[in-house]
Specification:
- This protein has helices spanning about 5-15, 20-40, 40-55, 65-75, 80-100, 140-150, 170-180, 185-190, 200-210, 230-235, 260-275, 290-305, 310-320, 325-335, 350-355, 370-375, 415-430, 435-445, and strands at about 1-5, 105-110, 115-120, 125-130, 155-160, 195-200, 220-225, 240-245, 250-255, 280-285, 320-325, 340-345, 365, 405-410.
- The protein is an alpha/beta fold and about 450 residues long.
- It folds into three domains: about 30-245, Rossmann fold (3-Layer(aba) Sandwich); about 250-390, 3-Layer(aba) Sandwich (Rossmann fold); about 420-445, no CATH class.
- The strands form three sheets. It has a six-stranded parallel β-sheet, sandwiched between helices. It has a five-stranded parallel β-sheet with strand order 6-5-4-7-8, with helices on both faces. Strands 2-3-14 form a three-stranded antiparallel β-sheet, with no helix packed on it.
- A hairpin with a 2-residue loop joins strand 2 and strand 3 (about 115-120).
- Helix 2 packs across helix 9, helix 5 packs parallel to helix 6 (about 140-150) and helix 11 (about 260-275) crosses helix 13 (about 310-320).
- The protein is globular and about 85 Å long.
Length: about 450
């Protein structure tokens, strides 16, 4: 773990370099997968699934009774988890419904007789990617499926790789989560054809839903987290299919006040670091004394844990504690990092002072009780968030990613009509587009 001062931050941040060699190799491999799936459809998808997942499913689509059986198995073997997932689903649903309300149809008269409008239309088909690498991300199923259904998507597909001991199916807990997530259909009033699951993962899954294959339908949008191959496939296929955003390794930044609890901060750093060796846990501390206590608390927690290998690797590679001089400097550093998760543990008054100065984050957790882990799972806010500084220009997954905002125009013979026609003609001629000008002018003569 590295410790620096706020005065050293700008130079440190600017000097960070990332080797492009590995990324070029990933892109080369993903381009090959995309080209093969585009040309050969199911056959290529099946070959890549056998190569990377060491499983060759008889069919990609998961039978409905397999999802029913997975749900029953979950309720029989781990009722507490089933209840927790249903609670999380209901909270995600409530929050997504409120988000959906922010997008509405309207018309306004921009000039007498000139009526401009907006219509909000859901995409017809959406695919949700649910990773199952080190652990099956069952919560990601809920985070993707529920907002899509609330948005009004007619057909929702879940893609997750088959597991070797699963008979060619995705992890059974993923399938149970699909059934639980689809339970919001009636509550949200969505007339959906259903939520279907497919046993396919990796870049081949992104390509399959981008193009459609013999048995895998083409989607309009694909959303959800994934590994670097999935991320590169989404980037390369954007335009062929809509994507939520291209995600990288997860990260957290904690802004601590003088009275912050170093043990809680250490716990939050380790929670983030355990995701992946490339995950990044960072803290802004007001003085070197607190920074030292946090580092000590991290070491004590790691020493007491039985599963520290990934967290240790992450913290050794990119753990960072920065001592800041004042709140302005803390806000400057936080906005430069643009973290996926930003925690404020400065006390109520200082938290409120900082709020308006913080511009770049995927999700904000205000106060010591607002653990980032709650946002990951159960409170209803989405955990699919922008990483790698992308919070500078986008927010997290929500119902809006499954909506199209389109515009309308209707005109009458009101007093404002002729002036806008003449203005259009003037601008068109200035751009050298006489046909546009004539097209507008003709409306006046008729």
């Amino acid at each position: 773990m590295i410790a620096i001062t706020g005065g050293e931050f700008d130079a440190y941040w600017k000097s960070r370099t990332v080797s492009a060699g590995g990324e070029r190799d990933v892109e080369r491999a993903v381009r090959r997968i995309i080209d093969e799936v585009r040309e050969r459809g199911d056959a290529a998808a099946r070959e890549f699934t056998a190569q990377f997942d060491r499983v060759s499913p008889e069919r990609f689509e998961v039978p409905g009774d397999a999802m029913d059986a997975a749900f029953e198995r979950l309720r029989e073997t781990d009722l507490a988890l089933a209840v927790a997932l249903e609670m999380a689903r209901d909270n995600i649903h409530r929050f997504a419904v409120e988000q959906r309300k922010q997008f509405f149809n309207f018309e306004c008269e921009v000039a007498p007789g000139v009526i401009a409008g907006q219509r909000v239309i859901p995409v017809q088909k959406a695919a949700i990617y649910a990773p199952a690498g080190r652990f099956p991300l069952i919560s990601s199923v809920l985070m993707g499926v529920v907002p899509a259904l609330v948005a009004g998507v007619e057909e929702v597909f879940v893609a997750s790789p088959p597991v070797q001991d699963g008979g060619g199916l995705p992890d059974w807990r993923i399938l149970a989560a699909v059934r639980i997530a689809s339970g919001v259909r009636i509550a949200s009033g969505v007339r959906a054809a259903g939520v279907r699951a497919f046993a396919i993962g990796g870049a081949q899954a992104i390509a399959a839903f981008a193009f459609g294959t013999g048995t895998i339908p083409r989607a309009d949008v694909i959303a959800g987290p994934g590994n670097k191959y999935v991320a590169v496939a989404k980037r390369l296929l954007f335009g062929e299919i809509g994507v939520d955003f291209v995600a990288g390794p997860t990260d957290v930044l904690v802004i601590a006040g003088r009275d912050a609890d170093p043990d809680i901060i250490a716990a939050d750093m380790i929670a983030q670091a355990e995701h992946d060796p490339d995950a990044r846990a960072r803290v802004l501390a007001p003085d070197a004394a607190l920074a030292g206590r946090i580092m000590q608390a991290v070491e004590e927690r790691l020493a007491a844990s039985s599963a520290v290998e990934t967290a240790r690797a992450s913290l050794d590679a990119g753990g960072l504690i920065i001592t800041y001089a004042d709140e302005d400097e803390a806000a400057h550093i936080a906005n430069a990092i643009a973290p996926e998760h930003l925690e404020l543990q400065c006390g109520d008054e200082a938290n409120e002072r900082l709020l308006p100065r913080l511009k770049n984050y995927g999700a904000l957790f205000i106060g010591e009780k607002a653990a980032e882990a709650l946002g990951d799972y159960s409170v209803g806010t989405n955990h699919t968030l922008p990483t790698s500084g992308c919070a500078r220009f986008t927010g997290g997954l929500s119902a809006r990613h499954f909506l199209k905002i389109v515009t309308t125009l209707r005109c009458t013979e009101g007093a404002g009509y002729a002036p806008v026609v003449r203005a259009a003609g003037t601008i068109a001629r200035a751009e050298g587009l006489a046909g546009h000008a004539e097209s507008a002018r003709m409306r006046l003569s008729r």
